[in-house]
């Protein structure tokens, strides 16, 4: 059996509705370059990553300019114009598009284009921790705030026990065959680990970093720039 390789798959076919920008948020300028360019550069520079695939919408009008302005990505990044109606669909479409280029037991690291604060050391930490794992896993952060469940009037209905709660991040790392099968079978999951859990498996939680947060709402932009300028 070949030594398993590690591939990055970046779902980048969203529109950033919650952010409310005039362009898809993954193309917003952060610290001098598009948000997606930070992510692609981090993975392209990671020596353990064999290749990077980025999934964009079929009518994406931005990726060509991004790639043209980033010669360091040439040969390391392949653009897949297979975005779907949901993140799950974009990821599954991407997996099916690369089936001739990866082996069943190769590892796929799925990472949101909206998490530009990812570092090479976080990638290394995830791969080192999970490399021999039978299931795979994800970066995540233990919850440190007290959590409240609100009612329809924004009144506290319940304080949620936070011990053992984690906030999922990405990359989420699973072997190609397991991940593809899980996503085909899953109904409307919001992350890859959720699909794998539906198979009755328990992905490993690997501590991530606050800088690897997802840029989702308008106030996230300044925070992301702060981390990227560190
Ligand atoms: N149909 C979709 C929806 C989302 N994504 C990607 O999944 C990641 C995380 O999704 P999210 O933060 O929700 O991005 P958007 O869907 O763009 O944001 P919103 O929900 O606010 O529209 C992003 O990199 C986004 O581009 C995708 O590839 N295909
Ligand atoms: C995959 C993820 O980033 C883990 O927290 C999250 O589920 C993505 O959710 P979104 O609504 O697609 O941003």
From TrEMBL:
SUPFAM superfamilies: Nucleotide-diphospho-sugar transferases. Keywords: Isoprene biosynthesis, Membrane, Nucleotidyltransferase, Transferase, Transmembrane, Transmembrane helix. Pathway: Isoprenoid biosynthesis; isopentenyl diphosphate biosynthesis via DXP pathway; isopentenyl diphosphate from 1-deoxy-D-xylulose 5-phosphate: step 2/6. It comes from the Bacteria. The record marks 162, 214 as: Positions MEP for the nucleophilic attack. GO terms for biological process: isopentenyl diphosphate biosynthetic process, methylerythritol 4-phosphate pathway. This is 2-C-methyl-D-erythritol 4-phosphate cytidylyltransferase. Its EC number is 2.7.7.60. The record marks 18, 25 as: Transition state stabilizer. The gene is ispD. The chain crosses the membrane at residues 36-58. GO terms for molecular function: 2-C-methyl-D-erythritol 4-phosphate cytidylyltransferase activity. It comes from Collimonas arenae. Pfam families: IspD (PF01128). Belongs to the IspD/TarI cytidylyltransferase family. IspD subfamily. NCBIfam families: ispD. It catalyses: 2-C-methyl-D-erythritol 4-phosphate + CTP + H(+) = 4-CDP-2-C-methyl-D-erythritol + diphosphate. Catalyzes the formation of 4-diphosphocytidyl-2-C-methyl-D-erythritol from CTP and 2-C-methyl-D-erythritol 4-phosphate (MEP).
């Amino acid at each position: 059996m070949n030594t398993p390789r590690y591939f990055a798959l970046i779902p980048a076919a969203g529109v950033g509705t919650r952010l409310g920008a005039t362009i898809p948020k993954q193309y917003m300028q952060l610290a001098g370059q598009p948000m997606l360019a930070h992510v692609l550069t981090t993975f392209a520079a990671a020596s353990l990553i064999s290749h990077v695939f980025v999934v964009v919408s079929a009518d994406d009008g931005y990726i060509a300019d991004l790639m043209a302005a980033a010669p360091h990505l040439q040969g390391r990044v392949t653009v897949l114009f297979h975005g779907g109606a949901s993140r799950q669909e974009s990821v599954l479409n991407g997996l099916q598009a690369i089936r001739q280029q990866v082996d069943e037991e190769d590892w796929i690291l799925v990472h949101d284009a909206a998490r530009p604060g990812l570092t090479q050391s976080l990638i290394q930490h995830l791969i080192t921790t999970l490399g021999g794992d039978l299931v795979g896993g994800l970066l995540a952060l233990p919850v440190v705030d007290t959590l409240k469940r609100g009612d329809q009037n924004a009144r506290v209905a319940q304080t949620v026990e936070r011990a053992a709660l984690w906030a999922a991040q990405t990359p989420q790392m699973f072997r190609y065959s397991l991940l593809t099968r899980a996503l085909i079978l899953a109904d409307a999951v919001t992350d890859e680990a959720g699909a794998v859990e539906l198979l009755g498996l328990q992905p490993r939680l690997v501590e991530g970093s606050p800088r690897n947060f997802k840029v989702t709402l308008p106030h996230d932009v300044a925070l992301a720039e702060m981390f990227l300028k560190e």
